[in-house]
Amino acid sequence: MWLNPEEVLLKxxxxxxxxxxxxxxxxxxxxxxxxxxxxxxTGLLVGALDTVLDxxxxxxxxxxLLQVPGSQVSWVIASGAAIEEVNKHWDWLxxxxxxxxxxxxxxxxxxxxxxxxxxxxxxxxxxxxQAAQEEDPEKFREALLKFELHFGLPSSEKLVTYYxxxxxxxxxxxxxxxxxSVNHMAFYSFLLGKEVKFVIPWAEVTRLxxxxxxxxxxxxxxxxxxxxxxxxxxxxxxxxxxxxxxLADITLRRLLDSVGLELDRVLQQTARxxxxxxxxxxxxxxxxxxxxxxxxxxxxxxxxxSVWTPHxxxxxxxxxxxxxxxxxxxSREEGSCTLLxxxxxVLSIEKAESTSSLPNPVIVSMRTKKAFQLIxxxxxxxLVESMNSRLRALQWKHSVFRSRKDxxxxxxxxxxYYTFYYDTGLSDEEEVEEQVLRNTVNSEALMTAFHQSxxxxxGNKSMEPVKERLWDDHFxxxxxxxxxxxxxxxxxxxxxxxxxxxxxxxxxTFSDACSELDSHQGYYAGLVQKSMGHSSxxxxxxxxxxxxxxxxxxxxxNPTGIAALRRVLTAYAHRNPKIGYCQSMNILAxxxxxxxxxxxxxxxxxxxxxxxxxxxxxxxxIGAQVDQSVFEELIRERLPELAEQVPDLSTLxxxxxxxxxxxxxSVLPFQSAVCVVDCFFFQGIKSIFQLGLAVLDANAAQLSxxxxxxxxxxxxxxxxxxxGSEESPxxxxxxxxxxxxxxxxxxxxxxxxxxxxxxxxxEALGKFRDLSVRHIERLRCLHRVRVLQAHEDTIKENTLRxxxxxxxxxxxxxxxxxxxxxxxxxxxxxxxxxSSAAAAEAAAWQHGDSGHSFVExxxxxxxxxxxxxxxLLAPWPSGCSQHMDTLSNRTFTLLAPDRDNLVTFKDFASxxxxxxxxxxxxxxxxxxxxxxxPALTESEDEPSLRSPLLSTNRPLYLNKETPVxxxxxxxxxxxxxxxxxxxxxxxxxxxxxxxxxxxxMNQREFIQxxxxxxxxxxxxxxENDLFQAIATVTSLVLQIGExxxxxxxxxxxxxxxxxxxxxxxxxAADDEWTVSYAQILASLLTEQALxxxxxxxxxxxxxxAQAKQxxxxxxxxxLTLQKGTR
Length: 1126
Description:
By secondary structure, the chain is α+β, with helices and mostly antiparallel strands. Helices cover 53% and strands 14% of the residues. Among the domains are: 2-127, no CATH class; 137-272, PH-domain like (Roll); 294-401, PH-domain like (Roll), CATH 2.30.29; 622-728 and 753-771, Cyclin A, domain 1; 806-845 and 857-918 and 1098-1111, Recoverin, domain 1; 968-1049 and 1071-1095, no CATH class.
């Protein structure tokens, strides 16, 4: 195979290689001893050496070297395990390159030519491997070449797929090809001699939607912040739209919030993303959502099959999904029959004899001596082998880590917690008693000790035994435990409300939190030990909210309940510091503790926060906001009349936000809300969407007549207050005061009627039965793009609001500069060596860069990124590229003296404001500071240049509410002390002399200063006058410095003088030549040509426009060049 040319100093070091063929430029060599049967000592030694080396260090037996005549340096350009493979490469070199090399006079140029050709061959092989992964490799290879040719993007920009389509410009369609890559979508058309091409980064896409117009039956509309584009006439529009939706979602999650949002590791590696990977990921996301599996689960097989369902006495057709730890089955009609089998409960997976009535059967045997039969499995042998390999690995892991506990359980033979299919062996009391905290952690649900008395309680107690009998009958028919058959019949039972005696068990079953509990024995007690006693921002917030959690329930009017709630919330914050603690978690945990044991409540909270409501409880509550946007879309789909009457649905979605965050616990009467939680654990977020739509549908007429947001809120609040249950009959509130009767006459009617929660849930499940998890996941993917981009717009607005008071740049230009700044950050993440930029950015988040606010930390540039923007935006020419590189390095050091070595947008805007908008003396002062050692620019700079005036020794923690790491949390505890010290520092700074001079400049630094001035004047229309003026100024300053030097020397001879501080922090010797900033400024002001040059206004708007045109291609070309030289 071809190799990246690697330098070899000695062509035959230690005589390990034998030359087989050679010419003036190439050598074909064989490893000594390879293939020989002689007993020569050298061959035996080499063979022994190759044998003892591991597989990664072994050398292939054949190689081809590129050599330069007369040089001892060669390069390995190809290698192979067989002589036939290497001979093919040799023949190619001889026939294609050897004659061409003879025309080079410089042999070094010939070597560079060959190395470039070899790199091209390697790139072609990479394209070939990528193309081989596609359905039609040859066509994909051709499309890949056209993509690289038309758009000039680096080779690392991975093309995913392409489609033939039309792009509309007004009423004119342009037929061409749409190329979809990992970071961009690009369109190219060449028709009737006119070329149309453009590139849209996914990071700029704010909305993707399918539309229909008079000209286009169906099209895809792509909206950015600047314009809209429509694409139509796809051969398969559904497929194209699905790929575009996924790529936009993945890119934004990866670039805009890589820490806050969960993203699969495969998708974080852009080089691995292909169309096939996207298809697999779409199925995986659907399976995780449908079965509420852990986010770490990897999907392996998707196989159509049929499962024997005893309750229907027939086989039910559907699809089998296999993951790391589960076997999942879903019927063809989503929700009619599902089955979840944890591999931890599986005893064996075996093939049975195939018959005409039972083709390709597979038997899954459980530990409880129950079995499931699957038939009609394609590729049965491979599927069973794959499942058995994962089963063996899981069983081995359990045998190693749990053998002692399992053996003890088998001896004691405890009564199983679940009595049918699923035997978890939950003797938790025995386990917990062995823990140090056995007297602290509650072993029973709080409801057993603290039962809330309610009106009509005695009359409704009879409903509990009835429900328990119904559930017992259901367990007998459908099974009990995680792997029970979940059908539409169980939906009706759940809608009636789960009996209190079974509620904790069934919540654990539906969420499969019991598997996590069983596989992590002692984990919670250990977390409690580690977390209790630790103080942090999360624990402070938890303490503040403890007594706000169900304050009317007797369990949380007692120290026992409060302590249990504290332990659960603190343990979870310790387990998952990325989430820590968020408001509404206290309400949810309180309800979980009422019906489940404390350790079970902890694992239920884990299931809700990490699996059932993904991304809900991060620092920006992205998941909840996405679902609010999805809810608005569902209102338009399912309640079109209401959507027409209420054009602005954001009002309704803002009201419904608490419905999703607290699962209706904060808006419904307690017993009714617990029934909603029952449905949530059974069906997931789908049940909340259905119930929310049912609530709006029930109040559609009144909501349509609303005149303001407050009235809509009153209607919905009044309705939800009247939703009762059999256990908790609703007591109507007292009538409103007479003064409000007229104004609220429309809302009086629903205030006196009683709504049963069971009826409301049944209506929601019936009327919106066709709402599927697949549809919700697709909408989430689309609306996540909109929500993330809305957050980006808010961040931009906040950043500009923070920066604009301190600069004189116009708002339009400042906005464009922010876009350039952000794009520069993204370009490096697209194609550059992101190890520096991305690692620094990640470190800033993870280590809690508390010296900067959230806005300042959002996008920051490292040195290469800043140098790129410097070349695009600096107002003065720099003469040669080398000197421009020097100036950009000095400017970066001046702007980023902190230990993180990153420039914020505020610093960046301040720099450009100095160059484009400030007075002459400020510009000269900045140039002066560029030519003295940067170590002194911040610590000894005059306070008036710092805006705002802040101490550099004690950074103020602006982002106090959301610390990122534990180290930051500990530091934030001293927030008040830091604030007081900051105010004292400000007073001291103001008391200092405002005219404190800058350090003196020595002769070497002054020469560099003059060199910079000369380079700035290059190409100016007044170039000659400027050169003469700077020559005059240079001569004058040299004379001033010399005169000062003589005076110092004379004074030192008469009496000892105090040393003068220099710009590098050292003390000037008596005979040191120095000048001050004031002397240089005064000298420059004597020349009108220089004054005119620095006072001449520079057009920042034009510079920004040029930068927008050149940034992408210039940076892409530079990054490609950098990669090619590595």
